[in-house]
């Protein structure tokens, strides 16, 4: 992901009101982010623990989504829909978000299971264990990175109504 500014982030949101964009709190480590190791920018609002934000570059433009964590917990340990990591160092929770445009104003939402604190970019960059003799771990990691990007893009496109 390319580095972005506070103003670019606030202007990118599809499904947030002006006041929600104005009042969002950027992550404390925003200026220290390793942008080249991020497939998207995701963070939880420290002032509003149930709120998360996603910003991703899609089709050449920056797209931001306001996400809400639901109270519902899964019975068994869930798998993240984006990074598909089975050895998660973190919790997976259900986030929902309003669709963009008229559908969102009518109350239509989309939801998915995501790593609670958006650790997906770090998860997919870990070298997987060797599955068999001659297994190309680097290629497997590259596939996981590409799949993460596809999953996030698919989710954003669904919210946009593409």
Characterize the structure shown:
The mean pLDDT is 91. It is built from 5 helices and 5 strands; from the N terminus they run H-H-E-E-E-E-H-E-H-H. Helices cover 28% and strands 22% of the residues. A hairpin with a 6-residue loop joins strand 1 and strand 2. The longest helix is centred in the last third of the chain and has 24 residues. By secondary structure, the protein is α+β, with helices and mostly antiparallel strands. It has a 5-stranded antiparallel sheet. It is globular and about 55 Å long.
Strand order of the largest sheet: 1-2-3-4-5
Computed over alpha carbons, the radius of gyration is 16 Å
One letter per element, helices H and strands E, the order comes to HHEEEEHEHH
Biggest beta sheet attributes: 5 strands, antiparallel
- The whole-number mean of residue pLDDT values reads 91
Percent range for helical residues? 25-40%
Poorly predicted segments: none
The fraction of residues in strands falls at 15-25%
The total of beta strands comes to 5
What's the N-to-C terminus distance? 22 Å
**Envelope shape:** globular
Structural class: alpha+beta
Number of helical runs?
5
């Amino acid at each position: 992901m390319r580095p972005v500014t506070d103003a670019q982030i606030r202007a990118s949101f599809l499904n947030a009101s002006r006041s929600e964009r104005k009042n969002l709190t950027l992550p404390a480590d925003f200026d220290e982010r390793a942008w080249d190791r991020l497939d998207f920018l995701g963070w939880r609002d420290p002032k509003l623990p149930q709120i998360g934000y996603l910003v991703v570059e899609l089709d050449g433009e920056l797209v931001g989504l306001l996400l809400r964590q639901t109270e519902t917990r899964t019975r068994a340990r869930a798998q993240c829909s984006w990074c598909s990591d089975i050895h998660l160092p973190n919790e997976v929770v259900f986030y929902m978000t309003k669709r963009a445009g008229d559908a969102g104003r009518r109350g239509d939402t989309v939801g998915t299971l995501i790593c609670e604190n958006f650790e997906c970019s770090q998860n997919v960059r870990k070298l997987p264990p060797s599955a068999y003799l001659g297994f190309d771990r680097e290629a497997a990691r590259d596939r996981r990175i590409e799949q993460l990007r596809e999953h996030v893009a698919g989710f954003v496109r669904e919210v946009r109504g593409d």
